[in-house]
Prior knowledge:
alpha/beta; 7 strands; about 45% helix; Rossmann fold; about 260 residues; Cellulose biosynthesis protein BcsQ
Amino acid sequence: MSPTNQNRKPLYIAICTQKGGAGKSVFTTLVASYLHYQRGYNVAVMDCDYPQWSIYKMRQREAEQIERNSFYQNKAEVFFSKLNKLTYPIVPSQPEAGLQQAKEFLSQEKHIYDVVLFDLPGTVNNESVVQTYFSMDYLFVPITTSRINMESTLPFMISVNEMITMNQGNIKLRSIHPFWNMVASKEKQELYDYYEKAILELGIPIMQTRIPKSVRYDREQSIEGNDYLFLSTIFPPDKPLLKGSNLDLLVEEIITIVNN
């Protein structure tokens, strides 16, 4: 994957979970913003997580705040004059229509996109959503050591990986990659070692990057608009908050995986 490569179709990527609150939409937003604003890729987001449409609604909320807030107006003016391109598009869609709507969107766009990130429903409850998962190029899964998280996520990853392994050419999905999220500094290393061994024995490659537990991952635009922000569809994470977040390491690892 190289920025604005005109000779290939965009990669379809989903950051997915089978448990609410595990970071699916947050990481979709952060990865999209980092790739688009920091790494020079052209990104589009398909928000298929109906009826929440949290990413699409975040963009609307941020745009309204910019209109009312001089701090964000100045920030946007300075940032986009240097960036020399627009914000990435966010297209709301019903889950079962996401693939077709993405195809239609891309066919109508003048811009060439490198990556389309899909925010998909956490629960695979119908055949069309299952088909959408297997129509991605890559799946990335935030996981934690909590038993509840593992009990919902492991069966999902096992099923997906088995389908990839058995693939006879009828699915597009290349691989699934879990990564540790909300890692507490005092959490026992033995627990991670235990789960990593189990996951690797299943033939699922676990990512090296670990995302620390941090309130910065929830820091959006404020009403006052006079502080650093991390989670945004219009701006990349501010450097003081990016440091130590490991988000940059996660994105670089994703780039490495999709380029192999």
